[in-house]
Write a structure and sequence with these properties.
Layout (H helix, E strand, L loop, with lengths): L1 H27 L2 E7 L8 E6 L12 H10 L3 E4 L12 H13 L2 E3 L3 H9 L5 H7 L3 E2 L3 E7 L2 E8 L15 H12 L5 E5 L2 H4 L10 E4 L8 E2 L3 E2 L1 E2 L11 E2 L6 E5 L2 E5 L17 E7 L1
Amino acid sequence: MKKHIIITLIIIELIILIILTNGIYCDNHLETKKYNMTSDKTTANLHFIVVADQHNNEIGKNNSKLIKKIKAEKPDFIAVCGDMVTRGINNDDIMKEFLTEAAKIAPTYCVLGNHERDMMNETDEVDIPADIKNAGAVLLDNEIIEFEKNGEKILIGGLTDYPFYDNEAPDYDNPHRYLWDEINEKAKNKFTVLLHHQPEFIRSNLNDSNIDLVLCGHTHGGLVRIPFLGGLLAPNQGIFAPYYSGLLPKYTKGEYDFNNTKMIITSGVGNPSRIPRINNCVEMTVVNIN
């Protein structure tokens, strides 16, 4: 009997060791995830990078490994989908260093995540919009720009926050609502990419959208990914949400179809949680549109 208990304890210890080793590996090993899509609305053959949820993390000294991988892709532009900082840490130096190097490679467009918004509300010590601009990147704070390739123009928009919060009903008189209406209308005639941090909110509008592609982060891929089930934890969706990080959320990582619109969620390049990323390595996302 005692022998069986010892064997059982050894097996449990080995399982814990394997899980922790996997977590350490996934927190530090950068993978590249590629997506390909086609559209009748563009012939520009777009090739771009999506990065999100850095949370002050560095992949290689001064993010040298991440920058090297981005540079090797020769992207048309780089989309940064928020949470490059961490609330409570009044410092955005790592974000500034990354954006400075990224902007040397290709035009770099940013949207604010909930951690940037929280930091901006908590302190005047860090001027995130100014730091993004000074790094050579472009902050799309409820704004739309035209990006041109091969003589063809596409739209790139940045939606800073979800446009239809219940506590703002019935007027929804806010800049994100107006941006959503504007870009949704313009998307009827031009291929359109929208950067937005939190997928769990915006997905409710995507079944009736003209926008071709929505890019999100925020979920960290579900943090722990379970084979055949997907991500284990994510904010504001799944069991027990919205009061806690929900269990078994639906939208955590990958490509999702909503009638005319696709949504791609990148699992991000950092991890502010005390829980390691299990079976879910930090990720740089590459998108090709032909």
